[in-house]
Structures are given as C-alpha cells and as structure tokens.
Design goal:
Blueprint: H1 2-24, E1 26-34, E2 38-39, E3 44-46, E4 57-60, E5 63-69, H2 70-74, E6 83-86, H3 97-122, E7 129-139, E8 154-158, E9 161-162, H4 166-173, E10 181-188, E11 191-198, E12 200-202, E13 205-210, E14 213-221, E15 227-229, H5 240-250, E16 260-263, E17 266-267, E18 273-274, H6 279-288, E19 293-297, H7 300-308, E20 313-317, H8 320-328
Length: 331
C-alpha cells in the first residue's frame, strides 16, 4: 500500500511539473484576454477641469495581449473570453515584441493628441494642426527595407511623386505588384537620399505589396488648453474616442449624464471614428466594469460587441459628434 502511495505521489508530481512547464513555455501564437474597463478621469488632466460627482464617467477598455503558452494553445478555453491568434495578426514580419510595443506606444501618444484636439474643436476652440510629414517608426529586421531605411527617416516622395501623409505613401506603394521595386526619397540628417526597395507580398493579402516599415504621421497639434493624458504602458490608438469624450467631460460638460460610459474606437482628426480590434475582449471588459453603455465604431465592431454584450447597451457611432448626440439622448 505504501509503495502504491509513493508511486501515485511521484506520478502526480511529474504531471504537475509537466503542466507547469506547458503553462510557462511560450508557443508560436498569441492570446487575447479581456481586461476590465477603467475610468479615464484619474489619468487625464485638463487645465480648468471641473469635478463631476454624479456617479458616472468615461471609461476606456484595453485588451491583454501576450504570447500564449503551450497549454493555452492546446486548451485555449482556459480563460473566459480568450481568443488565440497567429503571430502575424499581432506583429509585422520581422518585428520584435519590443519594436511592436514602441510602435503601439507611439500610436497611443498620437491618439491622445488627436482626441484632445477633436474634443476642444467640438467646444468651439481653434486648434491648429499641421502635418509635418511621415516618419519611419520602425524597420522590420528581415524585411526588404532592412539596411536601407532607418527609424527617423522622413519619407518625402515615392517614385518621384511627393508624399506627406502615411496614407499617401501606402497608396503610392499599392500601385505596384509584390516583387516590384519602389524608389523612396527620404530626408536623413538633413540630407536627401534616394533608396530603392523591392516590395514583398503582405502575409495577410498576397496581392498587397509591403516594404517592411512602420509609418507614423508627424503632426504638430497646438492645443489652446493644456491637456495631459498618461496611461503608462498601454499602447495602441483604440482609446482615441474615449479620450475625446473625457476631455469634454473634464471641462464641465456633463455628457455621461450619470452613466458609466465605456468607449472604444480610433479617432481621426476630422472626428471620424474607425474600427479597432479585440471587440470580443473589450465588450467583456466593459461588462465586468458594470458599464451602462458601450460606444463602438459602427459596422463589424458593433456587430461583434452585440454578440457578447448581454443586457449592456451597445451604441454604434461613425463620428465624435454622433457619439455626443447619442449620449445626449440617454435618460
């Protein structure tokens, strides 16, 4: 009997070690996990802000993204609301986790400036915005631009045609077929340089050409009212709508009307709200926070949110002004 007990104990220990190892060793995939929505007010400082104690507030919601362990890959139902995704859906080819985090933090910083600008414009302020150009934020280490383009290069032309915004650059590259060469004119250390880069097919769409760089619009936004937003290491542009709403709320306009309002959506300089990822996890995060309302980009994002919202009200919006009108109708 004692021998059997020792055998079972040893077997149990071995199994425990195996399970722990499987949970610790990373796989080749990523996992999206829900993260509880949080109020923005503690992270936003606006000159002239006024306190609001009606019990409501504007909330942002993020998604926890991490390398899935082997155990999580084999049994991805271990976590409520999780989604297993391939690495290509998270990082560009050749992009390291550290590079990806830097790109995400830059996108977050830009969304904060744009959100504040849109909010102040809606209140009648004049907010000058100047597009200075487009910078290379990162270069994929195994992409065609490696060793040719560098972070900090400002792309001023593609194939001899002047470009200023990231969209213009992508549009010019998209005129090529994968495998063809584009000529990029860049400013580096004050000097102009022409660089030939052979395009490669996008892993997600074989007909779409890429040159293996991550672009960032370089803008100068002059805010007439000082606004500071600090979410630490939270990255990505998807809190832009929430930022804009909270800045209006901080300046004494009771747009939440006592409700817990969670918002997710990237916001553009003209106030347009565009789709973001992770709506399944974000919807669960909004529910966990006890949200009354979840504002999301119209279209597929809203459809995804409604699948997991339960009794929580989902409001699809195309623009910031539409979001303000929707909140104004809440009882």
């Amino acid at each position: 009997m004692a021998r059997l007990f020792k055998y079972l104990l040893a077997t149990g220990l071995v199994l425990a070690v195996v399970v722990v190892g499987l949970y610790v060793i990373p796989s080749d995939q990523y996992i999206f996990l829900p993260d509880k929505a949080r109020p923005l007010a503690p992270f936003v400082t606006v000159k002239g802000e006024r306190s609001d104690k009606d019990g409501g507030g504007i909330y942002y919601v993020a998604v926890e993204v991490k390398k899935a362990s082997i155990l999580e890959k084999l049994f991805h139902g271990l976590h409520e609301g999780s989604t297993l995704v391939p690495a290509a859906a998270v990082r560009a080819p050749g992009e390291s986790d550290q590079q990806h985090q830097r790109v995400e933090l830059r996108a977050m910083s830009e969304s904060q400036k744009i959100g504040a600008a849109v909010a102040l414009r809606s209140l009648g302020y004049r907010v000058p915005v100047k597009v200075l150009g487009t910078l290379v934020a990162q270069v994929a280490t195994d992409g065609p631009s490696a060793g040719k383009l560098e972070p900090g290069d400002r792309i001023v032309a593609i194939d001899g045609q002047p470009t200023k915004t990231a969209d213009e650059i992508r549009g010019a590259i998209a005129k090529h077929r994968p495998g063809e060469t584009v000529e990029a004119t860049v400013l580096r250390n004050g000097a102009e340089k022409k660089v030939d880069v052979k395009t490669v097919p996008d892993p997600k769409s074989s007909k779409r050409p890429l040159i293996g760089v991550f672009l960032q619009n370089e803008t100068k936004i002059s805010l007439p009212v000082p606004v500071q937003i600090d979410l630490g290491q939270v990255g990505g542009p998807s809190a832009g709508l929430a930022f804009a709403l909270d800045v209006v709320e901080e300046l004494g306009h009771n747009i939440d009307r006592g409700h817990k309002v969670v918002a997710s959506g990237e916001i553009l300089q003209d106030g347009t709200v565009i789709p973001v990822g992770g709506l399944k996890q974000k919807t669960i995060g909004a529910k966990r926070a006890g949200a009354d309302v979840f504002l999301v980009p119209a279209g597929e994002n809203a459809q995804e949110a409604r699948r997991y919202a339960g009794s929580m009200r989902v409001i699809p919006v195309h623009s910031f002004r539409q979001a303000l009108r929707a909140l104004a109708t809440l009882k």
